[in-house]
Every structure is written in C-alpha cells, then in structure tokens.
Amino acid sequence: MTSIRPVATDILRAAALLPVSVVRSRTALTGRDPHRLRGLPHAGTGILLGTVSLILVGVELQVIARGAFYGLFDQGPYDHSWGGPTLAGAWLVHFLASLPVVAGALGLLWFIAHLDDRLGARFVRGERTGAWALPAALLLSAGAVVFVIAWIHQL
Questions:
Q1: pLDDT, tens digit, for every residue of 59-69?
Q2: Burial class, 73, CB count within 10 angstroms (exposed 0-12 / middle 13-18 / buried 19+)
Q3: Among 2, 7, 18, 57, which is least packed by CB within 10 angstroms?
Q4: CA-based nearest residue to 140, from 28, 17, 9
Q5: The pTM of the whole model exceeds 0.85
Q6: Of 16, 23, 21, 26, nearest to 54 (Cα)?
Q7: Distance (Å, rounded) from C-alpha 68 to C-alpha 60?
Q8: Is residue 154 left, alpha or beta, with left meaning phi > 0 and alpha meaning psi from -120 to 50?
C-alpha cells in the first residue's frame, strides 16, 4: 500500500510552483554558476505551470466553498437550487457535485508537479525525458488561458 504523503507533497509543491519558479528565474539570471542559464527554460515553463496551478487552487477553493460549505455561503431561498427546496437537499447535491471537480483538480496539480520534474530533468540536467513533456506543458497552459477567458465571459 502506498502512502498519501508523496502525493500530498507533490500537490503542495505544484501549488507553490509559481513563486518557486520566479526565484529559479532570478537565480538563473543573476547567479555565478557558468551553467546557470540552463535553468532558465525550466524556470519559464515553471512560471507557466505555476500560473496554471494558481488557477487550479483558486477553482479548488471556490468549489470547496460552494460544495462542501454550500449552506454557509448561500443563505437561500433554495426553491430553484440543485437539490432544493430544502437546505439539506441543496447542500447534499452541491457537495456530491463538487467531489469529482475536487478530485480532478487535485489530480491535475499532481500531474503538474510531475511535469515540472520531467522538464527540470530535461532542461537542467540534460536527461532524455521523452518528447511529450514540453508539448503537454504548453497545451495545459493554453487550456488554462481558454478556461480563464471563458470564466471571464460568463461573469
């Protein structure tokens, strides 16, 4: 049986990827190591993936607030709510609807941590990691841009 600790560590590492990558880029630009510029592409992709992680964390917090704590944030009436007309029914339906979204966002955060590891191995250490890592990072970033634009238009 595997422990949940490495998965939770990866999720937290992905959530903190944006500030970590900003520090990586500053170190790559100002450091004294002659090989420091090899870390610059990793820092750049880390900033992209860190921004995606920040969006995912925001979505995660909103889904938890509107799902698990629905009754605390929506004061009713519940006549036209999912699961309404009672508070208990609306709360239960919103909680159950939030579970797959929370699991999916946590899975994406875990994937982002592993993707950042692959890109670091490729750019910093020069390892062969497969051709899928960089296109996956760019595709994930483009998907986040489309998501944010769609989110803004629905406001």
A1: 999 888 888 88
A2: exposed
A3: 2
A4: 17
A5: no
A6: 16
A7: 11
A8: alpha
